[in-house]
Amino acid sequence: MQQLLEQHYTYARTWEDIEIMLDKAERKLNFHKSKMSQIKIKSKSWIMHARNYKALEGVIKTLKWTLGDRNIQDPLN
Predict the structure, then answer these.
(1) Alpha-carbon span 73 to 77, nearest angstrom
(2) In sequence order, what DSSP letters do the residues of 8-50 get, joined into one string?
(3) Can you tell me the distance from the alpha carbon of 14 to that of 62, in angstroms, rounded to the nearest whole number?
């Protein structure tokens, strides 16, 4: 199993890399939230922004969990 993981993962990310990615994800989340408030609800564009917004919520929760956020016990819930 360990060999299989080593073939797919480099484990080369630093804590700073993860924090930078978290910042980018939060900025994108805010962008999509802003766009959703400017567009007609349920339009194709609104749905696209809503889908990206929800996906980024999961990304942010997982990155915060990775960094050890005490308020996130399980990023899957």
Answers:
(1) 9
(2) H------HHHHHHHHHHHHHHHHHHHHHHHHS-TTSHHHHHHH
(3) 15
Q: What is the pLDDT of residues 56-65, one digit of tens each?
A: 999 999 999 9
DSSP letter at 73?
Answer: S
Structure tokens at 3: 């060999």
Q: Is 3 within 8 Å of 30 (Cβ atoms)? A: no
Cα angle 18, 21, 23 (rounded to 5 degrees) comes to 110
Quick one: tokens of 53? 């917004």
How much is the pLDDT for 39? 96
**31 φ, ψ (degrees, to nearest 5):** -60, -50
Is the torsion defined by CA of 9, 15, 20, 26 positive or negative?
positive
Give percent of the chain with pLDDT exceeding 90: 86
